[in-house]
DNA sequence: TCATATTATGAATTATCGTTCATATAAAGT
DNA sequence: ACTTTATATGAACGATAATTCATAATATGA
């Protein structure tokens, strides 16, 4: 972040750590935690195995840090939108679009995040940070829908279920798309998800596009 | 299946194999493939490690067979509904309800199935059978929606997206529920999913309940 | 009852992988 | 140039876990 204050050495050290994390995300996102060895990460990042342990206490630590970075990145991208002053329907639309943009720029990251936290959770090393962030975002979406209903913008649907539906659909769609990423297709698909959910939610008098 | 034709020995052998598979599903569904050892399975099933290898070539074989059984069970439950003569909207409603019932009776099975095939796929040993079944069901749901649109029962929505949305919502909901299963809650939730999707799809003149 | 065939056993083997650490390399300071 | 400090290296270690196999137990049928 504030890398003006740093010496060249410190900056290089950060770069190295970053290189290791980048190599890791590539490998983990397509093989999964248990099918990637520290050897593999060492080769991919062009460091020696021992060097990895200068940066991370253990393989689990490395993985946890990776997931937490990922969760934070997602949080920093999406939270401002959810906290903005947009009307509830526009908030949801913007949220979906931002998800698409984020996915485009961070496909391995998001693939890993969705595959690990989409369903699984119990199995891999984690300290709960990423799950907390997921829960916070889920709750916020739920709030937005509730408040949209209160303001007579949305129809009075079951909030829990539509939140689950919206988020699981976005996540599944992006996960499917990530197998062979195609920018145009993803944008088109997410626009359709936006239409499906937001237009379904809107009470007719608020609809402007069809 | 046709265990009338079998000797007692053959029947017992099948029972043993079944006991091993049942022990495995319990363990895999709450620890995941890589966190369950053949030792663990041996203890849980009350056989020796070596005995497991009289029934299965390898741990991967065992897992693959388990997943394939699971997929077949789901297929046999759901396919008849999708092929029935019900009107398209009733087909979807029945499908959702059958999913709930199936989940109730086979919670470990379905938890394993969804967690492995909900998102992940690449990471675990598999021969593609379970994926094929998933694809076949997905395609069939898509067809039903298309045909509902053709018959003016459903609104002309984007078929791909609504299929993805419906199935990913069902799967996420059941997976979430499986963490602490509660029959009433699951039935209630799936009824809401049914309402959300099927009622959204129906063109107003076909609606009977609200 | 005894010989044969079937099935079960679990200690031993083998392989993999996370982790450590003595050593090498390179940078910084004097 | 020489000392000190920081960083990188990868062979060696130890633990875990899949798999094998010689042996034991059990069932079958003559």
Walkthrough of the structure:
The structure is a homodimer of 210-residue chains. Chain A has helices spanning 8-31, 38-45, 49-55, 59-82, 88-105, 107-117, 129-150, 159-178, 183-201. Chain A has 210 residues and is mainly alpha-helical. The longest helix of chain A is centred in the first third of the chain and has 24 residues, at 8-31. Chain A binds chain B through residues 30-32, 34-35, 114-115, 118-120, 122-123, 157-158, 160-162, 164-165, 167-169, 171-173, 175-176, 189, 192-193, 195-196, 200, and chain B through 30-35, 114-115, 118-120, 122-124, 157-158, 160-162, 164-165, 167-169, 171-173, 175-176, 189, 192-193, 195-196, 200.
Please give the structural blueprint.
2 copies of one chain form a homodimer.
Chain A: H1 8-31, H2 38-45, H3 49-55, H4 59-82, H5 88-105, H6 107-117, H7 129-150, H8 159-178, H9 183-201
Helix pairs in contact in A: 1-2, 1-6, 4-5, 4-6, 4-7, 5-6, 5-7, 5-9, 6-8, 7-8, 8-9
Chain A binds a DNA duplex (30 and 30 nucleotides) through helix 1, helix 2 and helix 3.
Largest interface: A-B, 33 and 35 residues
Low-confidence stretches of chain A: none
* Helical proportion of chain A, percent range: over 70%
Major sheet description of chain A: none
Rounded Rg of chain A: 20 Å
Give the termini separation of chain A: 44 Å
Q: Number of helix segments of chain A?
A: 9
Q: What multimeric state do the chains show? A: homodimer
Could you report the average pLDDT of chain A, rounded to the nearest whole number?
90
Query: What's the shape of chain A?
Result: elongated
Strand residue content of chain A? under 5%
**What letter string, H or E per element, gives the SSE order of chain A?**
HHHHHHHHH
DSSP summary, beta strand count of chain A = 0
Global structural class of chain A: mainly alpha
């Amino acid at each position: 972040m504030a890398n003006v204050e740093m010496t060249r050495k410190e900056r290089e050290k950060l770069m190295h750590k970053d290189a290791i994390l980048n190599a890791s995300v590539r490998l983990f996102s397509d093989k999964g935690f248990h099918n990637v060895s520290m050897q593999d990460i060492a080769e991919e990042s062009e460091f020696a195995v021992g060097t990895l342990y200068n940066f991370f206490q253990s393989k689990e630590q490395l993985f946890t840090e990776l997931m937490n970075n990922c969760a934070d990145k997602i949080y920093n991208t999406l939270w401002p939108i959810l906290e903005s002053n947009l009307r509830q329907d526009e908030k949801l639309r913007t949220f979906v679009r931002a998800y698409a943009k984020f996915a485009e720029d961070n496909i391995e990251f998001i693939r890993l995040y969705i595959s690990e936290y989409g369903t699984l959770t119990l199995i891999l090393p984690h300290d709960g940070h990423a799950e907390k962030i997921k829960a916070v975002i889920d709750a916020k979406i739920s709030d937005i829908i509730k408040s949209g209903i209160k303001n007579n913008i949305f129809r009075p649907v079951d909030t829990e279920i539509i939140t689950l539906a919206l988020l699981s659909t976005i996540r599944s769609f992006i996960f499917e798309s990530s197998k062979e990423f195609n920018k145009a297709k993803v944008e088109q698909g997410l626009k359709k998800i936006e239409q499906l959910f937001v237009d379904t939610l809107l009470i007719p008098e608020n609809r402007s596009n069809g």
